[in-house]
Amino acid sequence: MQRKVLAGLPAVMLVMAFTLLVSGCASHLPPPPAVPENATAYRIGPGDSLGIFVWQNRELSTEVPVRPDGKISLPLVNDMTAAGKTPTELSTDIQDQLKKYVNNPLVTVIVHSFVGPYAQQVRVVGEAQRPQSLAYRDRMTVLDALIAVGGLTPLASGDRATLVRSVDGKQVSYGLRLDDLIKDGDMSANAPLAPGDVIIIPQTYF
């Protein structure tokens, strides 16, 4: 019954409802949580496009998408998990599998399009020109995310936008001043992002 009710609500009401459900509210953004040194390497996620190059074996070199289940399919290799691995880790795994068929295989993995694991994405919802999930990048900011989604729609209420972040296992909402940032160039309204952040842009009141 609850699913049917939610399905009938306009998108803007769902955005407002999600904002109200977060457990806390703060006016200033904290710095992003510390990122372990080994977490700076990009980790492959579903939706990524991978170039697999096997040295001196063109017939084994290919470009493959990472499926929703996190796996890829390659010539001579059964389905292999790619999601959550770095390109270097995946290269090593592919080499180990190809050793059964190729002498001393040398494999290189290149990520052509970046999506990343779900937990490493930043999501922008509501009144953005192109609401979407973005692969988190080191030192990514709110301004970077806004540029990627094409800015705000004419109906956006930028200074009522919120950023939802998981802090100590709880969802906490922080106020954003997107109009000040975009229209006035107030860089004090910019803020660092963290993996898993959600930016919610509501519609303006009439």
From TrEMBL:
User: Mind listing the GO molecular function terms for this protein?
Assistant: polysaccharide transmembrane transporter activity; porin activity
Q: Where in the cell is it found?
A: Cell outer membrane
Instruction: Indicate the segments forming the Polysaccharide export protein N-terminal domain, all copies.
Output: 38-111
> Topology relative to the membrane, per the entry?
Multi-pass membrane protein
By its UniProt entry, which Pfam families does this protein fall under?
A: Poly_export, SLBB_2
Report the superkingdom from the record.
Answer: Bacteria
Q: Which UniProt keywords apply?
A: Cell outer membrane, Ion transport, Lipoprotein, Membrane, Palmitate, Polysaccharide transport, Porin, Signal, Sugar transport, Transmembrane, Transmembrane beta strand, Transport
Alphabetical list of Gene3D superfamilies matching this protein: Outer membrane lipoprotein wza domain like, wza like domain
InterPro entries noted in UniProt: PEP-CTERM_polysacc_export, Poly_export, Poly_export_N, SLBB_dom
Which residue intervals define the domain SLBB in the entry?
120-201
Q: Which residues form the signal peptide?
A: 1-28
One GO cellular component term, please give it.
pore complex
Could you give a single Gene Ontology term from the biological process aspect? monoatomic ion transport
Q: Which family does it belong to?
A: Belongs to the BexD/CtrA/VexA family.
Query: What's the name of the protein?
Result: Polysaccharide export outer membrane protein
Query: From which organism does this entry originate?
Result: Rhizomicrobium palustre
